[in-house]
Q: What sequence folds into this?
């Protein structure tokens, strides 16, 4: 009886629409009572984010040996978050100036915009001198990609965006939510645990003229596999021949090799070969400004006038999305990049972060080789950047988490930034047990 009545209430609620007061029965007195149902009662629960959800699960775990290798955020040897010394120094300078909290202009903080383009192309690059670079400060890498996606939706109508398979999980959401059609191009060869260069070239050759190709500027996430300089050159030439627009996602400049210039090789090469490019840049990882949301969308074009007009349109899009970007992180980044002394110190700190990751990478490989010599583990030190793409299957990943409390994404990626020497043995044992038994 009660069940039937409740069912009836739901039907009435749906028919009449939201925010309806309906009538319910009390078991004991059959009295009528008025109860309000939310107009959002039918909204389904969204699944947890495949990357950030890992950190939530890690926090909820009570295991004393738990290890968070999910999120790509740098940790020191004690597995603690790091605020770089240059960031503290820059903040001290900023605070001493007692600056106000007024809005920035829509395109962002001028010294930050200059610093960001210098970092990408190298100070004094002809494109900068010729004024054919449009740059808008945005909400870190993600926000910059989203502004780029909005720009593509509006001005490259119907263009398909090609993203690597696999890629950072959020690329699909960013372009998909903006209503931009996306497809995969082949990238990773599981047999060689390396780049599927042939597949990549075939897929880009087959892409319709005018398509957009998202390329990871360096330290490909999640595979840690980058094209060689020769392969980059061939990709650039193919983009030119096929009229494809390269959209570089530069989230790890400095983290691949520890050297900012070396890590900007690919976008600089494309520009120098006469291609127009879009770039999203992030200071989350290399300056450790994760939560400050500092980044930019850059367009390097052939001529000054279209660059000026594109900037005006980027501003229009940003105005409707978030109006103007945050000040504090931009001031920090500008202070560090534009100050000779701090810039040199930053390079040293970055080498330190990249070096620590490289060290644990080597330690993990050696531990696995000692415990499971029949398998080739050399791919671990061939990969670069923050991650290693282990090749663990989803079932093996579940075992890593459920049995060993090692939290990682289900694609088999582990963030080496969350590993230290003391935990290498534990991780290697968990991997070997999972590979052998699952
Ligand atoms: C490939 C790639 N692009 C973009 C981002 C965006 O990061 P953020 O929005 O923190 O700059 C990330 C972060 O993990 C990433 O791995």
A:
């Amino acid at each position: 009886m009660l069940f039937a009545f409740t069912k009836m209430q739901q039907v009435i609620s749906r028919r009449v629409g939201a925010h309806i007061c309906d009538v319910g029965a009390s078991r004991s007195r059959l009295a009528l009572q008025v109860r309000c149902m939310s107009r959002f009662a039918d909204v389904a629960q969204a699944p947890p984010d495949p990357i950030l959800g890992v950190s939530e699960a890690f926090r909820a775990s009570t295991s004393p040996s738990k290890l968070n290798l999910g999120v790509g955020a740098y940790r020191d040897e004690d597995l603690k978050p790091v605020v770089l010394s240059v960031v503290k120094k820059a903040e001290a300078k900023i605070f001493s100036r007692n600056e106000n909290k007024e809005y920035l202009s829509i395109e962002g903080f001028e010294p930050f915009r200059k610093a960001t383009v210098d970092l990408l192309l190298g100070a004094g690059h002809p494109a900068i001198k010729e004024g054919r670079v449009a740059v808008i400060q945005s909400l870190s890498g993600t926000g910059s990609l989203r502004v780029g996606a909005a720009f593509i939706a509006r001005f490259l109508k119907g263009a398909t965006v090609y993203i690597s398979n696999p890629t950072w999980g959020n690329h699909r959401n960013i372009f998909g939510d903006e209503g931009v059609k996306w497809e995969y191009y082949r990238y990773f060869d599981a047999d060689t645990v390396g780049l599927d260069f042939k597949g990549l070239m075939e897929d880009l050759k087959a892409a319709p003229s005018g398509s957009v190709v998202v390329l990871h500027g360096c330290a490909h996430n999640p595979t840690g596999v980058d094209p060689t300089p020769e392969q980059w050159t061939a990709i650039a030439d193919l983009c030119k021949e096929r009229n494809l627009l390269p959209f570089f996602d530069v989230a790890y400049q400095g983290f691949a090799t520890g050297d900012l210039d070396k890590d900007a090789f690919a976008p600089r090469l494309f520009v120098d070969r006469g291609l127009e490019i879009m770039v999203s840049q992030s200071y989350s990882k290399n300056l450790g400004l994760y939560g400050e949301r500092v980044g930019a969308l850059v367009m390097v074009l052939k001529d000054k006038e279209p660059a000026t007009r594109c900037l005006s349109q980027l501003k229009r899009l940003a105005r409707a999305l978030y109006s103007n970007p945050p000040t504090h992180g931009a001031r920090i980044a500008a202070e560090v990049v534009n100050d000779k002394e701090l810039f040199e110190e930053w390079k040293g700190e970055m080498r330190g972060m990249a070096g620590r990751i490289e060290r644990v990478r080597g330690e993990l490989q050696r531990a696995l080789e000692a415990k499971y010599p029949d398998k080739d583990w050399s791919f671990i030190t061939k990969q670069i950047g923050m991650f290693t793409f282990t090749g663990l299957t989803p079932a093996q990943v579940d075992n890593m988490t459920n049995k060993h409390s090692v939290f990682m994404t289900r694609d088999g990626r582990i963030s080496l930034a969350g590993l230290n020497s003391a935990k290498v043995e534990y991780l290697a044992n968990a991997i070997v047990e999972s590979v052998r038994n699952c």
Summary: Residues 2-36 form one domain. The chain is about 45% helix and 15% strand. The first helix runs from residue 2 to 16. Confidence is low (pLDDT under 50) at residues 1-6, 11-23.
